[in-house]
Design goal:
Radius of gyration: 37 Å
Structural class: alpha+beta
Order of helices and strands: HHEEEHEEEEHHEEE
Number of helices: 5
Length: 279
């Protein structure tokens, strides 16, 4: 009898353990499922927070630029045209708005970028940092015109019925490879939305042209002359020419074949006295 009871108890214990094991596995499975659901919920919450942050930044915090069709300050086209024309204008005068020390040729006052008044002596650079010189003069050249672009755009918006609050603007110009970048600060409110800054990139080869001009000036300082034919071989996209004058001045002309952007400057280095046959 005791043996039978013992067998029954063993069977009961086995069955009980199996049930508990199964229950434990089920509970673990439920816990794992709950854990996965919790992770998904967290990811959803984080995603919503990120999206909300982007919307807040885009709609309220980030400085906004509007197109003309949507009630915007759309004067970057005007700015681009002004910059392009001004590059042409000061490019023909060695990067000077009003050259004070220049050589007159074909009715143009071409500024000296390297000069010596002596004979048989190499010249001295007049503008050691040519790119910075061009940037400063370009900013001076376009200043009033960019302000006019801004004022005209504001007037157009008001004529279209927009409530516009405008202030004074400030800008910087940077000459970079293949482009001239204009960064404008414009504290403006259009219909309750604000515009504080934007940038205009004007495609231009002037950076490359100024770098080639700098190389030519280095040859003028060192040797009193530059081999333009060899330079054209190195820069096939450019036309590089020079014109020798009787007083010892050399006019260098660098032009981009595609855009026709031109830069020219004067140099007087290792000049020879009148009547003396040199070189």
């Amino acid at each position: 009898m005791f043996d039978d009871c013992e067998g029954v108890m063993m069977n009961y214990n086995r069955i009980y353990k199996d049930k508990m094991a199964g229950k434990g596995m089920k509970q673990r499975g439920n816990l794992e499922e709950m854990d996965k659901r919790g992770q998904v919920t967290i990811f959803i919450i984080v995603g919503l927070v990120i999206v909300a942050g982007i919307l807040v930044y885009t709609l309220w915090l980030r400085p906004t630029y509007f197109s003309e069709k949507g009630g915007a300050i759309g004067f970057e086209g005007c700015v681009g045209d002004v910059v392009e024309q001004s590059i042409r204008d000061i490019g023909s005068t060695a990067g000077f708005v009003d050259p004070e020390f220049s050589y007159k040729y074909n009715g143009e006052e071409i500024g000296y970028l390297c000069y010596t008044n002596d004979y048989h002596v190499t010249c001295t650079i007049q503008k050691p940092f040519l790119k910075q010189h061009f940037q400063e003069q370009l900013k001076r050249k376009v200043g009033q015109q960019i302000n006019l672009c801004y004022e005209n755009s504001i007037d157009e918006l008001r004529a279209q019925g927009y409530d516009v609050s405008a202030g004074s603007i400030d800008f910087n110009i940077s000459i970079v490879p293949s482009s001239v970048r204009v960064e404008i600060e414009a504290p403006t409110t259009v219909g309750g939305r604000r515009v504080t800054r934007f940038g205009v990139d004007v495609n231009s080869p002037i950076y490359e042209i100024l770098m080639v001009s700098t190389s030519i000036l280095q040859f003028e300082v060192e040797y009193g002359d530059a081999d333009t034919s060899s330079m054209m071989f190195l820069y096939p996209n450019l036309i590089i020419d020079k014109l020798k004058r009787s007083d010892g001045t050399t006019i260098y002309m660098i032009e981009d074949k595609l855009t026709k952007t031109k830069f020219q400057f004067a140099s007087r280095s290792i000049a020879w006295p009148p009547g003396f046959v040199g070189q």
